[in-house]
Design goal:
Blueprint: E1 2-3, E2 6-10, H1 16-22, E3 30-32, H2 38-41, H3 48-54, E4 58-62, H4 64-73, H5 75-78, E5 93-97, E6 104-106, E7 109-118, E8 121-128, E9 131-134, E10 153-157, H6 170-180, E11 184-188, H7 196-202, E12 207-209
Length: 219
């Protein structure tokens, strides 16, 4: 996400470096984490280029338990006592725990963390101005919908057509999207079971599958 010269990432998936190169991202000012599963954090070391180039630590934000898990899993990054060998480098990251329901400025953007659940695991969705990003959830609790009022673009996970115990199915995601009422919803976290063209043709107006390289401008 880019705004007023600042770039904020949501999660650091595997092969992050290749994705950033393809998108021609040359600067990252902060990272928002949704949760601690490997497909959302395993590319964290690829952030080292940005802290090395800026010569200052990069702020990463998310649920307190996710920040704690990152500190355990990537001790060499977050433990200041672990210093790289002379002539080498490591990512310089500073973890900040966010509070659900409390708007916080992140790289100049007002970020509202939304508390949701991925099975038993708490995850954060994010409302950032007219954009909302929600992934890896099975449902959106009624208490969250007021925070989504007025959203212009909703990014929402949808795994496949059949039911899943910890992810929204495509029909469930359609229901959530219609309840939120954003003019445009993009479905993400899809699988190889849903071909893009076939899925796009089957979705209601205002709901579309996301795809690699998609750029969305939100005023």
């Amino acid at each position: 996400m880019e705004h007023d010269g600042a770039t904020v990432l949501i999660d650091t998936p595997p092969e992050l470096r290749l994705q950033l190169i393809r998108a021609e991202v040359r600067q990252v000012d902060a990272v928002l984490y949704t949760h601690e599963h490997a497909d959302h954090i395993a590319g964290i070391d690829d952030l080292r280029a940005f802290s090395v180039l800026s010569r200052q630590p990069l702020a990463v934000h998310g649920p307190a338990e996710t920040m704690a898990r990152l500190a355990r899993a990537y001790e060499y990054i977050f433990d200041d006592d672990v210093q790289p060998v002379a002539g080498t480098s490591k990512p310089r990251l500073v973890a900040h725990a966010l509070d659900a329901g409390r708007t916080t400025l992140v790289a100049g953007l007002p970020v509202l963390p939304l508390e949701l659940y991925h099975g038993p695991m708490r995850v954060f969705g994010y409302r950032i101005g007219p954009l909302a990003y929600i992934t890896d959830v099975k449902s959106v609790p009624p208490a969250v919908y007021p925070a989504l009022q007025g959203v212009r673009v909703l990014v929402l996970n949808a795994l496949w057509w059949r039911s899943h115990p910890t992810h929204l199915s495509i029909p469930e995601a359609i229901t959530v999207a219609q309840q939120v009422g954003a003019p445009q919803t993009f479905l993400t976290h899809l699988t190889h079971e849903t071909g893009h063209a076939a899925l796009a043709a089957a979705l209601p107006p205002g709901i579309a599958p996301a795809y690699d390289g998609l750029v969305v401008e939100v005023s």
